[in-house]
């Protein structure tokens, strides 16, 4: 019996399509978003093992034999920029702070939260060198820059509240990191909340640090950060997600090792913020605890508190089901495969209320 030519063509097309489905068991590109940029907008950052993984090319090395390209996307617009890119299907993974992450999820971004990346992040308040402000209590009615929509905004609101203030008591200007630093130097604002980027104007004699979260209740006002992946990517390439997480766990392990501290700061200095800034910013910090990838009791409690705080400060309207959002399966598999199941000790939720000092003893 002769098979019609049209049927043969259809059958061939089906086989080709079927083969293509199997050929796509891995992506051609992994797009990874980073909610920060280096000095001058350079595509390099510091301050986390995400920065370490990027600078050392760890993901690129992991997927080199597979022919999978890793593209890093750095956002001057920080967390809000990452959310916009997620909305436009431009990213597969991203590293962000807690506030933009929960805002994105509350507004329907289809992501899974797959590993913690940091907790108790340090932030500062700087004032112009001629400002009479000596602490947060002194800044009511003054011009202050805050990068809105980022975890720094949430941290600043917590610190303000602890000192009997809110954003409504200030003349707030929404500025990104670079703009904020420049505005402080030119005295277009009197004060600015930010990170170690503020050290540059301090060292030029143009500003002074009047508040450091590092010394305030063990840094409990500082934000937490983590890594997310799109639900679509996770469903389509579960093995790739496992390998990404496994590689990032290796980055966390290398970064926290005290004998690598000098090399870590050298890598982070590629951001354009010098070695000494990272050294000062992280002096006596216990990376083992602060950079733990575990989604433990403390970390979950910190996100519950971030949701509650954000709603109270008027930064968030909807709630989030954290139990459905957090997916520990990839991290647990990576820790088991690397024989690191007992390397990081989970922090209990009670530690959130009694942050204490998590500084190293040396």
Automatic annotation (TrEMBL):
Name listed for the protein in its UniProt record: NitT/TauT family transport system substrate-binding protein
Annotated transmembrane regions: none
Gene3D superfamilies with a match to the protein in the record: Periplasmic binding protein-like II
Signal peptide residue numbers: 1-23
Top-level taxon of the source organism: Bacteria
A Pfam family: NMT1
Lineage: Bacteria, Pseudomonadati, Pseudomonadota, Gammaproteobacteria, Methylococcales
Alphabetically ordered keywords of this record: Signal
Originating organism: Methylocaldum szegediense
Domain called SsuA/THI5-like: residue spans: 63-254
């Amino acid at each position: 019996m002769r098979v019609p030519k049209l049927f043969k063509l259809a059958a061939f097309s089906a086989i080709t399509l079927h083969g293509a489905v199997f050929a796509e068991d891995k992506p051609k590109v992994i797009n990874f978003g980073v909610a920060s940029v280096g000095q001058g907008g350079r595509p390099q950052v510091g301050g986390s093992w995400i920065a370490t993984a990027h600078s050392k090319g760890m993901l690129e090395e992991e997927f080199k034999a597979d022919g999978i390209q890793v593209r890093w996307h750095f956002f001057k617009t920080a967390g809000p920029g990452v959310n916009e890119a997620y909305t436009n299907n431009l990213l597969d993974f991203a590293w962000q702070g807690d506030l933009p992450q929960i805002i994105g999820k509350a507004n329907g971004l289809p992501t899974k939260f797959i590993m913690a990346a940091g907790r108790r992040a340090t932030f500062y308040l700087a004032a112009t060198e001629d400002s009479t402000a000596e602490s947060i209590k002194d800044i009511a009615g003054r011009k202050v820059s805050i990068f809105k929509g980022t975890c720094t905004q949430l941290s600043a609101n917590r610190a303000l509240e602890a000192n009997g203030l809110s954003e409504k008591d200030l003349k707030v200007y929404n500025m990104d990191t670079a703009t904020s630093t420049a505005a402080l130097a030119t005295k277009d604002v009197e004060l600015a909340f930010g990170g170690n980027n503020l050290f540059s104007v301090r060292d030029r004699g143009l500003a002074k640090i009047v508040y450091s979260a590092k010394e305030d209740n063990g840094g409990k006002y500082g934000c937490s950060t983590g890594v997310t992946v799109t639900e679509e990517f996770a469903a389509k390439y579960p093995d790739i997600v496992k390998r990404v997480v496994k590689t990032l766990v290796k980055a966390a392990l290398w970064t926290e090792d005290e004998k690598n501290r000098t090399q870590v700061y050298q890598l982070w200095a590629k951001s354009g913020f010098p070695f000494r800034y990272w050294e000062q910013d992280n002096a006596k910090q216990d990376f083992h605890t602060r950079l733990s990838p575990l989604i433990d009791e403390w970390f979950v409690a910190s996100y519950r508190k971030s949701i509650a705080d954000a709603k109270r400060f008027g930064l968030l309207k909807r709630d989030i089901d954290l139990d459905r959002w957090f997916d520990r399966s990839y991290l647990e598999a990576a820790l088991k495969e690397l024989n690191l199941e007992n390397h990081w000790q989970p922090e209990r939720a009670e530690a959130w209320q009694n942050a204490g000092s998590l500084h190293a003893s040396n």
